[in-house]
Amino acid sequence: MFADRAKIYVRSGKGGDGHVSFRREKYVPNGGPDGGDGGNGGNVYFVVDEGLNTLTDFRHIRKYCAGNGVEGGKRNCAGKNGEDIVIKVPAGTVIREAESGKVIADMSGDNRKVLLLKGGRGGSGNQHYATSKMQAPKYAQPGQPAMELDLLLELKVIADVGLVGFPNVGKSTFLSKVTNARPKIANYHFTTLNPNLGVVDLEDAKGFVIADIPGLIEGASEGVGLGHEFLRHIERTKVIIHIVDAAGTEGRDPVEDIYAINRELEAYNPEIAKRPQIIAANKTDMIYPDTEEDPVSRIRTEFEPKGIPVYPISAVSGDGLRELLYAVQNQLDGMSSEPVVFAPEYVPEEDQSTQHEPFTVEYDAENDEYVVEGPRIEKMLSYTNLDSEKGFRFFQNFLKENGILKELEELGIEEGSTVRMYGLSFDYYK
Question: Which of these, 41, 10, 38, 16, lies nearest to 119 by C-alpha position?
Fold first, then answer.
């Protein structure tokens, strides 16, 4: 079954934690820090696979996770990077953030491979935190967390020209006559349930890709029938061929049909309704000579003054098809050859704002005081004026927001206890 929508979950890999260790050799009793860095987490990539034309595979597998980075080791050994994950999609797939619906990437045109989520960076081992003041740091940086997203995948066919019209007006027959496509054809409504693509080859002209958009009905823009499922496939087309049953073989008024379909296009996306349109007045072989009013003339009188050319055709006999196709090609020649690609609207956060530099909170029983150390704390103390009320309040908020106060309480600190940070001592009061 043709599938053009899917919802999946993707997650990049978590960065491996940095390691805390010290050299321990026979003749080096007090070796320095030698903790290795953690490995980077795996990335999530999307790539175009020309062998795919639906999103069916995503109905069976909905969760895609890259590998986590490995923790660093002793003797400056770095942890192994997590494995990347590569997700293959058909050309024309639009990747959206599921909750907002905003476009992250459009796998069309030159976008053949996209890095969607970066893996977390591996944490630095304690070897990086040795300073003149702290020669034996007992902390290392944790790896950055993984990034995760719920995604909505939408396949929007890539075609220069879209066929629209009510069911059973002859779109599938037309496509089979002018292209290499072989759609199933039968005489019942909603004949086509899948978009069909075909290539039109013309002598002394470039040719173009044409898509038979499944038959629309009134209310399609509001989701009646399979409205949204069909309308999304016309969003990339540059020219619209509006096929209408000029003979009115099912008792429908061709002029009213054209207006009805255009209202659906306008309601779904006003930009689509503004695109160049050519009317193909089909089934002229079924117009009886003794008809009171020539229906093709009536359609021309109604729409050609509006700048919409009308071409009488018979998809069954082939009459008028050549003239119509060259008119479409002339229209395309005056337009950009670049495919319609949806611009990104949502960029997954590449920087983890919740990631903090490492720190340690320990109780020094010998001196009966609590010791807090870490590069972030050292930096904070270097630019904070603790003698001012504002600076000291900032210092207190820093301890609270970074979880340092919580860790002191978990170690059993009591009011009046001493806390030492890089040569500065404070009395703890709640």
Answer: 41
